[in-house]
Each structure stands twice: as C-alpha cells, then as structure tokens.
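Quick board copy: two proteins, each given as sequence then tokens.
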Amino acid sequence: MAKVARMYYTQGMRQTEICERLNIHQSTVSRVLKRAEKEGIVRITVSLPSGTHTETEEALQAGFGLSEAVVVDCLDDEAQIAHDLGAAAAFYLENTLKPNDVIGISSWSAALLQMVNSLRPSQRFKSNRVVQILGGVGSPNAEVHATQVTRRLADLIGGEATLLPAPGVVGSKNAREVLLKDRFVREALDLFPKITLALVGIGATEPSRGLASSGNIFSPQELKLLSGKGAVGDICLRFFDENGRPVVTELNERVISMELEQLRSVRRIVGVAGGKRKMQAIRGALAGKWINVLITDLATAERLLAGREDEELKMAGRGRAGQRTR
C-alpha cells in the first residue's frame, strides 16, 4: 500500500504505469489506493484559496433549497457589489452554458451589465439564443443599457439576440394590449416558454438609479400601494412579498415582461443580487423559490443565513410552547 501510494501521489505516476512497473492489474492499484486512504497511509486535504467561501455556499444551498450558490468577497459599496457580482456571473456563465441553451435576460440590472462587460468572447455556442425578458424601451440614454445587455451577450457567445421592443412599464392596460399585438413584441414573448436559463436581477421596491433613469418605474404613489400590499421586491417588475407570494395589483396589467409563473418553469434561474438595500427582496425571492441559483456577496449571504437560523429558533420555540400547552 505504501509503495503504490508513494508512486501515485508523490512520484505522480499514472495507474497504468504502476501496473506495468509492479506487474499488477489496474483494479488492484485502484483498490490498494482506496485501502491506503482508509488505513490512514494517505490523507487528503483540500487547501482553499483565500476569497472562496464553499461552506457558506453549501449552507445557502441546504438552507434555501438552491441547486447552486456563488458567494463573492465585496466592499460594502453598491457599485462595487454590482461590478464584482457581474464578474462572478460571467465566470459562472462561461463554465455552465450548454449548447442549445435559450437564455432569458432581464434588462436594467447593473450587475448583469457588468456580467456582459466581464464575459470573454466565445463562438462555442452559435446555436444559442438570447431573449430579452423585460421591456427595454425607455429614456433614450438608458435604453442603450437594456439593448446592450441582450445584444452584446448574444455577440459574445456567438448566438442570436431577440429583443423585446416595448417599455417595461406602460401607461395603461389598453396601451399594453396594443403593444402585445406587435409582431416583434410577440416574437420575443413566444420564446419565453423555450427559455432554459434565465439571468435575472432582484429589485427592491425602491428602484435602483439605473431603473429610475430608464423611466420604467411606477410613481411614488404606486410604489406606496405595492408596499402597502406587502411587496418587498421584484423580478422583471413582477412583485412579491417577504414569503415570496406574488403581490397582485392592477399594476401588473401595465408591465411587459416574463411573469413569475412563467419564470418558475425555467430549468435554471440565476439571481444576481446583493447589498443591504436588496436584503428583503433576495430573501423573498428565495422564499418563493423564484430562483434556484444565487450569486451574491459574502455580507448578504451571512445575513441570509443568520435570518434563517433566527427563523428556525422561533419555529422550535413555538413547537416547545405547543407541547407544554398540550
């Protein structure tokens, strides 16, 4: 065991080379290496580089039922958080994108814009399509942001872009109905059920500067109405409460974007968001299972886990109180 372990781990020999040198079968080499580990002759340690937080990621995955979590070290600055989360999202996308994925991406997210700016060009996925899932028409200056996210992402991966040429928020239900009949708007909407990977920002009820400058926001009175109904955040301007339940108001009838129930049917939904301002929104998105992959900053991850622990302690306390009552 010691000889085989030394040849394999210290001298860097392949198992086939060990077989030839010692005149034994490869299955014997494999079996001996496993035995050497059990006997303590071989001890395997993993030395993680600084800045990686695998334990925190695993705790998020277990605590919130996520398929994956990515936690990033960031300074406590909103612009820096968007930049760093965007870079992490670019790395995630480069390593997990599959051939024939249909990517849905929401506009007006600073982190997703940074993701596109950080992405390395690749022509591996020419069959992929990128679909805008939140209306991107708005202020002429800000509109460049929305179309850039979709078009540039498609260019970088060698795919095709389908824009959603409509505002995210329109003035009335009738205006929305007219726009939904537009051929190019319908072309984007008809692709929503085919999306396999959604990249979304998570918004607080208080709009970000980018969204506010776009004009795709509700008035202060309308935002007050949403808050009064318990809204804590949104994905694609579809609002939900702290438990993740959709907040349904007449304002929904003025939004042109993917609906939450449509989003739920997407196989991979990646939420890219962090910072104190968005804490309640991220927690609500997790509670509603509106995302199954989260890319966030370390401080936000720790707050989410602390809140989860507090909730579990409260539940345990209620359970003990109920037992005493009985």
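And the next:
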Amino acid sequence: MSNLARITPANWPHPADYAAPPTAADRTRWAEADRAARPERLGRLRKRMIQEGVDGYFGLRWEHMRYLTGLPFDESEVAGSGDSGKFMVGLEDVWVLADSRYTIAVQRECPDATLYEIELQLVDEWPGLVAKSGVSRVAVEAMTIPHLTWERLRAATPGIELIPVEGWVEADRQHKEPSELERVAAACAISDRALAALLPSIRQGVTEKDLALDLEWRIRTGGADRLAFDVACLSGAEAALPHGAPGLRPVKSGEVLLFDFGAQVEGYRSDMTRTLFVGEPRERDLEVYRMVAASQDIVFDALGEAVSSAQRGIALPAGPSFDHMARDLITGDGRFPAYGHGLGHGIGLATHELPGLGRRSADVPLPDRTVFSVEPGIYMEGEVGVRIEDLVIVDVEAGLVERITNFPRDEVVVGI
C-alpha cells in the first residue's frame, strides 16, 4: 500500500506553498506563443488535408476555433453564438465566420485569418463561403455538425463534396506545446491554492453547496479566468456518485468529503479530485483510500518505466494498459469494487480530450509531451466513495513524468 502521511490542522498545506497566479507578462507571452504556433498548427492540418485529398476543412468545435484561429470561444459562448466562430481552412487561407456581434472580436483575435461576415443562417451563407474560399472537396467535423445541417449544406451546393471526418485536430492537440503545458500547470496551481485556503472553512454542519460556492470564489479570485467546470462537493455516501452535484447536505464528522474541481487560465484547464476526512477517519474509509492511492501509485511507477524505455526507442504503452493495471490491483485485492469510469483523460483547451486512459480508449501508444489525468476510484453505493485525481505531464525527450497537481495526496483530516 502507499506510504501516506496523516495531515491535520497543525500541518495543513498553505496557499503560499504553491505557485503564484500568472502575471500580465505571462499572459502576453502565452498569447504571443499561440500566434507564433498557429502557422505550424495549420500546416499540420493542411498536410493531412492533402494526404486525404481535400482542399477545405470546415471546423465547428470551439476548441479548434481557438487552437487554429485564435478566437477565444468556449462552450459557454458557443451556446449563444449561432454560426459565428465556425471556420473554413483552405490550402492557403483561413476564413472565420462572424455576425455583427463578433466581427470586432474576430478582427482583433484572429489577425491572420479573413473575416467572413454573415447575416443569415449557415445554409444560406454556405454557397458564398465555398465560392469565396474556392474549395470543392471539404472535410467537415462530423461529430459536431447536426445531420439536418449536413443534408442542407449538401443540397445547397450539390457540386461540393462533403467528407465526414473526426479526430484530425483532436489528435494534433494532444501533443502539447511548452506554453500550453505552462497554462495547464498554472491552472493546477490556482486549484491547489484554492483548496488549501478552503480547509479552515470545512467544519461540521456546513453544507456541500456552501463549500462548493466558497471554493469557486477562491478559484475565481485566485487568478483563474473562470472555472474549468462546476465544482463537485460530495459528503459521506454521496461521494459514491462519480459525477454527483453538491446539495444541502451538511458535513458530518466521521465521513469523507470529495471535491472535484478545476480552474481555467487563458483557455487551458486543470482537473483535480481530493477526498478528505472530516474528523477522525473510519478504518474502512482509510482502507478504501489507501487502496485507491496504491492503484494510482502503480500507474505513476509504470509511467516512469515507460518513459525510460521510450528514451531507448520503445514506444510508450497504450492508455488502456494503465487502466488495466490500476483496475487489476483493486479487483485483485478482493475487498472493494473498482471504478467503472476510465482511468484518465487528456486535458487542455477542453476538460476531456485525447489521449484516453480507459478501457474503451484507442489501443495506440500514448503521445509524447502530453498531459492527462490519473483518477482511479472506489465507489460503494450507500456507504462511501473515494477518488484521487492528478494531472501528469509525460515528456520523453525531457525524461519527465511530472505530477502538476501538488495538493497532498495524503490522508488530510479537516473539521476538527
């Protein structure tokens, strides 16, 4: 089992233990790095386009908008933006669609792209867009476009061939540039500081919702642009819901308290889960926690060995292999059920992206210079739930396996 320390109020982590929030200079440097990287990103996409025999790529996903054009949309903006932000990549140029609400933003944020002003629905604008861009065979992000829209676009331009594609840009985005990794790490540090600052507020009787709101406030005022996703705070048996929502349940002594949360910095996200102990831990809960920590440790050890082997020319293992080793450790022990979700996921502009470390993930080698979560758990309905989630950078060239969520994984006791 993992060699875990007991952390009580006398030796709690302090917000000052973690990196300071990003400065204005950091943010400027990251923006400049993105703009410098976009020609190479587009170049890799165009290489794929040529290989696949298409001369246009029509993008709809907000992560791809930001990655390839610079338009800083996310899921909250896309919900009300209509067709603005969608983009066409040709073999030479890029066009970004925008209605009157977004024309200034596109001109400001996408200086290397051409604004394509729209007033009508996409199907009505489509003939003009394909004529302007000069494309004839267009790859379309098929996982995002509604079927009805696809059929209407095809009918509007019968001479233009639409090719359904998926995974082209997603596969590229899993290989992270240094400035992307810096932003994920900065978001992690904000989360670390926020949880450390919250610890004194955790006491018996306070509700899950109150703690979730308190943690959100500390994230937002601690350097984050926004949350990566809504804060989960679950106490006692409710912690057995892997994606439960905080309620009006009061925190009680002798129970666990699970937080799942993340920050967002210049578009890039963090994701961390910590399970704390309120008052004196129950022995059964400690055993569950130690088993989860051990299943995480076996993955960290295997990743270190894999990177050493990769430096000698051996491909990194596939994501599912790490899921199997963590799951097998739990099931082999025989006392507790293993988690039903995947072991981990990539993270960056989206909270969940490639690479995947689950049983259903692609059986292909992990990419180099990437970042992903390792988050095993044990969930016992009506009794207790424990998950520990950390983000890990893997960089073969640097010989690096680095955990960038630094809040302790030890047995943290609160509410006493």
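Board note added afterward: The mean pLDDT is 96.
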